[in-house]
Amino acid sequence: MNANQPNANAKVPMEAGLSRRNFLRNSAVFASGLAALAASLAPLRELEDFPSMDQFLQKYYKELTPEEMAKVLKRIEDEVERQYSLRPHVRDLKPLAGVEYVYALNLTRCIGCRKCVHACVAENNQSRTPEIQYIRVLRLPHGSLDLEKAEHNYNPEAVPEKGYFYMPVQCQQCKNPPCVKVCPVHATWQEPDGITVIDYNWCIGCRYCEAACPYWARRFNFAQPSLPKERLNLDMSYLGNRPRARGVMEKCHFCLQRTRAGRYPACVEVCPVGARKFGNILDPNSEVAYILHNKRVFIQLKEEMGTSPRFFYYFDV
Amino acid sequence: MNDKPRSSVVLLALALVFCALALAFGLRVWGKPRILPPNPLVDVQFITPNTIRTSYVQMIRLKADLSDFDCYGCHEKNKPPTLRFDTNQNLIVPQEHSDVVMNHGRHGRNNNCFNCHNEKNLLLLQTRDGRELKLEECPPLCGSCHGPTYRDWEAGAHGRVSGYWDKTAGEVRKAICVDCHNPHSPRIPTRKPAPAPNPLRPAGRQVTHED
């Protein structure tokens, strides 16, 4: 025991090594380290669109009971009202029985005026800055359908121009949609009426669907969307045109807030030359059935991809 | 024992760097994230579903001034107006109708007012087979020459529609020929296109495939 005594004594100076000076110095380092950690989290202060608890705990769209859906719709109305001080009417419109939508676009008639693009933006509450547009109007030289020669930034004094024709491209509502297959969380799916929809509350923003789409039809909200209050469309639907958040995908949904209530999409109504046609292909008396039977329907765009679009381009005559 | 002062120097330097960074973050030395200048809102004319022109039918609906269509305010009843042609058989449009531009059919072939108007009653239209139609009922008249287009229009494949595709939910509104086509000069005029996409690149630079 005695032999151990000096060792025990030797420990005392070691413990005394935590002197007042060392303690102050170490705690200063520690405190500045903490401060630096806190400062490095500073970008979190810019996180304005942090989801509410209800939003965070919301169930998957297909699992929501009607009562839960009503609560969700009310919450969305509250959110929109808080942001824009206008009360919207948000509905959850279900697909109609015995209806499959088909779109037909007359390439002989289209004059490339881009009215469809902007009517769509206004109808579907797309972000103005940064700009999100579902429709791209391609200008192609006469005599070929080579998309490599397409140009969508054309801006002449007057359209149509000599020697060109115009081909608007938007979501083709494929029968075999590649975007749906790649979604890792099933936030996008095809409904029985043929519309491929997105649950904006379920989307994780991975952008796989954007990469999978051969038509460049999907648009991503890289920044907080900005909507002018005076152009806000208050007739909204859950899967359709309610305002989106940053970090989610969106695309054309055939204006489902209109079409599932029996109305024509905004792009059809605004087209000044009547090049756009829309209807229920299961109804043999619809105009799209007439067009597919009687007109020179020449393509589904990028037919060789096997996507089988519900969007048909045709020529008159 | 020699590396003890060195390590505290390193620690002190690190602490200073961290403190400086913390201060910089706190004071937002690098500024806020860049805010994009807002894109101008597109002109309302590019989002209204109005037709290209305002036809007589629409003027009736809008309760507009219809005095231009009161033919017998100037013309005499039971006295068909006489038409005058120049040496090339082109119609000379009288001054009172200077708003009429005759450009229907190639090479001015459809240049006789009474191909469509009824000379016996100027308030009516007439087809070549003798049917008389009101001004607001033009489609059968236009269809008497443009048969395939008339057939497409009746099926909904030609021309503009609005309202409801689902006939059980509401009614479909079909534009008639003259809502879009000027009957005297039916070709749709060229127009200024709506603004091109304005993506996140500096103004004035447009990427084309020639680049």
Give an overview in words.
The complex is a heterodimer of chains A (317) and B (211). Helices cover 29% and strands 15% of the residues of chain A. By secondary structure, chain A is α+β, with helices and mostly antiparallel strands. Chain A has a domain at 101-315: 2-Layer Sandwich (Alpha-Beta Plaits). In chain A, the strands form five sheets. Chain A has a four-stranded mixed β-sheet. The longest helix of chain A has 21 residues, at 20-40. The radius of gyration of chain A is 29 Å and the shape is elongated. Chain A starts with a helix and ends with a strand. The relative contact order of chain A is 0.17. In chain B, the strands form two sheets. Chain B has a two-stranded antiparallel sheet. In chain B, strands 3-4 form a two-stranded antiparallel ribbon. Chains A and B meet through α2, α5, α9, β10 and α10 of A and α1 and β3 of B.
Please give a quick description of this structure.
The complex is a heterodimer of chains A (317) and B (211). Chain A has 317 residues and is of the alpha+beta class. Chain A contains 10 helices and 12 strands.
Furnish the topology, listing elements before pairings.
The complex is a heterodimer of chains A (317) and B (211).
Chain A: H1 5-16, H2 20-40, H3 53-56, H4 66-84, E1 89-91, E2 101-106, H5 115-123, E3 136-141, E4 164-169, H6 178-182, E5 188-190, E6 196-198, H7 208-212, E7 219-220, E8 235-237, E9 249-250, H8 256-259, H9 266-270, E10 276-280, H10 287-294, E11 296-299, E12 311-315
Parallel strand pairs in A: 1-8, 2-12
Antiparallel strand pairs in A: 2-10, 3-4, 5-6, 7-9, 11-12
Chain B: H1 3-27, H2 56-62, E1 124-126, E2 132-134, H3 139-143, H4 147-155, E3 161-163, E4 172-174, H5 177-180
Antiparallel strand pairs in B: 1-2, 3-4
